[in-house]
Amino acid sequence: MQRKYPNLCKPIKIGNVNFRNRMFSAPMGGTDITADCTIGRASTAFYELRAKGGAASVTVSECVVHPETEGSHMYHLDLQTVGSLSSFTYTADAIRRHGAIASVELSHSGQYAGTYLTDKDKKHSLAQWGPSAGVRPDGLEVKELTEELIADIVAAYGNVAGLAKRAGFEMVMVHGGHGWLINQFLSPYFNHRTDKYGGSLENRVRFAREVLDSVRKAVGPGFPIEFRMSGSELFEGGYDLAEGVEIAKLLESQIDLLHISAGTYQRGFSITHPSMFVPHGSNVYLAAEIKKHVSVPVATIGGLNDPAMMEEIIASGKADVVEMARALLADHELPRKVMSNRDEDIVKCLRCFTCMAERAVTSTRRCTVNPFIGRELDGTEVVPSSQSRKVLVAGGGPGGLEAAITAAKRGHKVILCEKSDQLGGILKGEQAIPFKYEMYELGVTLGKLAKDAGVEIRLNTPVTKEYAETENADALIIAVGSEPLIPPIPGLAGDQVIVVNDYYLEMDKVSDQVVVLGGGLAGCEAAIHLAREGKTVHLVEMRTELAPDANIRHRPILLAEIDKSTIQVHTEYKGLRVTEEGVVCVDKAGEEHLVPGTTVICALGQRARRNVVEELIDCAPYVAQIGDCVCASTITTAIYQGYHAALDI
Ligand SMILES: Cc1cc2nc3c(=O)[nH]c(=O)nc-3n(C[C@H](O)[C@H](O)[C@H](O)COP(=O)(O)O)c2cc1C
Question: What is the CATH number of domain 497-604?
Answer without folding.
Answer: 3.50.50.60
